[in-house]
Amino acid sequence: MKATRTDFSTGPVWKSILAQAVPLTIAQMVSLLYNVIDRVYLGHMGDGSSMALTGVGLTFPVVTLLMAFAVLFGNGGIPLFAMACGAGDEQKAGRIMGNSFALILVSAVFLTLIGYVFSRPILFAFGASEESFVYARRYLNIYLIGTVFMMITTGMNGYINAQGFARTGMKSVIIGSIANIILDPILIFALKMGVAGAALATVISQMLSAAWVMRFLTGNQAAVRLKREMIGIRRSDTIEIIKLGMSNFIMQSTNGLVQIVCNSTLQIYGGDLYIGIMTVANSIREVFFLPVTGISAGSQPVISYNYGAKRNDRVKDGINFNTLIGMAYTAAAWILVLLFPGVWIGIFTRNAQLIETGIEALRIYFFGFVFMAFQFAGQSAFQALGDAKHAIFFSLLRKVIIVVPLTILLPAAGFGVKGVFMAEPISNIIGGTASYVTMRLTAYRKL
User: What's the pTM value of the predicted model, to 2 decimals?
Assistant: First the structure.
């Protein structure tokens, strides 16, 4: 089938953003099913389901760190790629894409080896107990096989979207996710593989998605093709890619850091039960994040393209639309969590104790969720305009400077496990406000 392409230079900006954002959101939603469906099935596995859920939760920081390198080398090149396309320089655009691909391949091999060699000390450092480690290692040892496929899908799919083929980019992850949904019950229950089956289903699914991405980027339908002669690591391009990708890398890797600190602190103050609750809370947050991240990701190539074409009026329209729709959605999502916390937790587990204890924790964790719209609007604008300095700073501010210290200090100050869940909303309010206000006073005003 012929791929449909969106022209970023004509028509209302909000239509261009939605044309990108809707398929991206659907793609991310389906992509999230890779891990969320695993957790849903494992949470309803029967005896040991709570510990299996905890074990998989302990692997989150590892998975997050692997994804962080994928977005560092993938997303870091996409604004540069889109600007080059907007300026009509397809040679430069192809060179940047080839450089990103080479960096992804090299880092995937290195990270896989590190994961296998140091899996035991890593998982115990991340909060594992002897009982939960068994499940965590079983899942991680198989998941690591698919590292290269996950990184290709995560890092290179954005180059399809940046060329205006958002629907094709959506299919990249839908193919793999449908396979994952089909394979999970077969491998987990029918073949009685449990946690190992969930990991194997994910690896096979990621392999299918990666094959689709590569087939399109190297085929004739792509506006800018990934050619063999363009694949290689070049110093100047790599530096620029890393500069712009660093903000997303920090956001992803600091998510992993926060998960590590949360799990370790919860193990001290609450034990495996609360690590399971945090696993569920993170899963629910990921689901509700999707439309916000979809809008942000959809707006970036549109804003970058028009910035490269010197259409500042369209750039400002894009930023404004990104902000307003993000605020409306996050406010609605916050209300839904406050009103029906037990319903959302019940999707992931039948454990009565986990549900009862988790309701209050979830309400605390989601407080001030609307401020995430400001964080994403500011962050995506900085990155789309090539302002690496501010993008990196505000990535560090929310997670490293605010969340991590609060996660350690609040429980010690007498809040116990509640303190761990309080750190996230406090950081949302402070970090989101600071990011957006700074963006309006600096990058937006210059336009």
Answer: 0.69
